[in-house]
Design goal:
447 residues; alpha/beta; Rossmann fold; Helicase, Ruva Protein, domain 3; 4 domains; five-stranded parallel beta sheet; 16 strands
């Protein structure tokens, strides 16, 4: 909801302007002098301040300087008489967004405010532009029954405001599912902001989420807008929510319940209108049992659960995905690349511990290294060429045991190929370095 502060000492003018702006559906707070306006700015969050240039107790110019210091994201419109045009131009140079000459048409003021609000919305959307472009170029694909269930659920929950918890192994497309939910929602034309909770140091994640005031801690030289504020009226994805520190989970729960937050080091309450999506590769119920995740937060996040199936459970989608990725890399190479039938057979027999991300990395690799336009089995990585598949005479083993053995073999092969370089091995496997470390620990692999 748009919040406007009107600073005007003339009572008739103040009441007239406030009444007109409130009829637009905006929340308008009024101040009779500069000092009162400053107190309101320090205690609340405003999108726009409309102020007379000549104010008692704290002049309009001094008030402007205080606003740019306290709330640099707030736009300021200065109201001025004809004799003070030079002062108004000076205010523009000092950070004011616009000025309007008295007496003015109230419709003109409304138009100017709407223009500023539009610009604020554009700035917020620019933050998520790169992510949205990536989502458009990396659609969710699949003809399998498990993926059709995913698509149906996305279309069902997309238009709602419900919080969705997306779970699944690394590389299954959880972020793409979140992007699809946003695109299917009524907020599709609003900001879509992502934050990876695992990629930010524990001491900084609160500031990233909620922002901070200048001087809140060492190195906080200026005010910072948090991701929740950036996503206002839109959607926020908390990727790898299972990595969020326990102490911060309580604050997140309060934000979700109250729909408001405060910047680090600040006292102003910021009202929020954010649709929250979360994703994790962890089993949060296990994390709750181990005391690493709050049960009440899990209940709040898991309003709608969405599980992304691993690639090994939808083998029939491998040809579609492989050809899609190969077409993408063909454009970059300016050569039409195709998969030989034997190559496709090798791909469909592979377990893909890194899921769709690993398949994409393999297609990128062969598109660069293959000598010809037709990708043959010899162009694939060694672990796909030399797969030992059980014959009909071999004794059957549990599927989980067989998959675990295959996954361990792939991890060992990647580490051997990179001479123990974990970062390069993770790239080869199409997983994160942290995920590789977890798998090495699981299978007792030591270097």
């Amino acid at each position: 909801m748009t919040r406007i502060l009107l600073a005007e000492d003339d009572e008739i003018m103040r009441i007239t302007v406030q009444d007109r702006l409130e009829r637009q559906g905006w929340i308008v707070d009024a101040a009779v002098n500069g000092q009162e306006a400053l107190q309101k700015i320090q205690g609340s969050n405003f999108h726009i301040v409309v102020s007379d240039i000549r104010m008692p107790q704290l002049g309009g110019v001094e008030l402007l300087q205080a606003i740019t210091e306290i709330a640099p994201a707030t736009d300021v419109i200065m109201m001025t008489a004809y004799g003070s045009v030079d002062d108004a131009i000076s205010c523009l140079k000092k950070g004011a967004t616009d000025y309007i000459l008295k007496p003015f048409d109230l419709d003109d003021l409304v138009i100017r405010i709407n223009r500023i609000l539009t610009n604020q919305s554009i700035k917020a959307r620019c933050v998520s532009l790169e992510d949205c472009c990536r989502q458009l170029h990396s659609p969710l694909l699949g003809n399998s029954s498990s993926m059709q269930q995913v698509f149906d659920l996305i279309q069902q929950v997309g238009p709602t405001q419900a919080t969705v918890l997306i779970t699944g192994e690394s590389g299954t497309g959880k972020e793409l599912a979140a992007g699809a939910i946003h695109q299917a929602s009524t907020r599709a034309d609003k900001p879509y902001v992502r934050i990876n909770c695992a990629a930010i140091p524990e001491g900084l994640i609160e500031s990233e989420l909620f922002g901070h005031e200048r001087g809140a801690f060492t190195g906080a030289h200026k005010q910072k807008t948090g991701r929740f504020e950036m996503a206002d009226s839109g959607t926020l994805l908390l990727d790898e929510i299972g990595e969020m520190p326990l102490a911060l989970q309580a604050k997140l729960l309060r934000v979700l319940q109250e729909k408001e937050c405060e910047r680090v080091g600040g006292t102003r309450t910021i009202k929020l209108d954010v649709r929250l999506l979360c994703s994790t590769a962890r089993n949060l119920e296990d994390e709750v049992q181990k005391g690493r995740f709050r049960q009440d937060l899990l209940y709040r996040l898991q309003v709608i659960p969405l599980t992304m199936p691993p690639l090994r459970d939808r083998v029939e989608d491998i040809p579609l995905l492989a050809n899609h990725f190969l077409k993408e890399f063909s454009l970059l190479k300016d050569t039409i690349l195709t998969l030989a039938p034997q190559t496709l057979t090798c791909l469909m027999k592979y377990s893909f511990p890194g899921n769709v991300r690993e398949l994409r990395n393999i297609m990128e690799r062969v598109s660069v290294l293959a000598p010809g336009p037709v990708i043959v089995p010899e162009d694939l990585p060694g672990e796909l060429q030399n797969q030992n598949f059980p014959s009909d005479d071999d004794p059957l083993v549990p599927l989980g045991e067989a998959l675990a053995e295959t996954e361990k073999h792939c991890v060992l092969a990647a580490l051997n190929a990179t001479e123990g370089n974990r970062t390069q091995a993770a790239v080869l496997l199409g997983i994160s370095r942290k995920n590789l470390w977890q798998k090495m620990k699981l299978y007792s692999i030591e270097l």
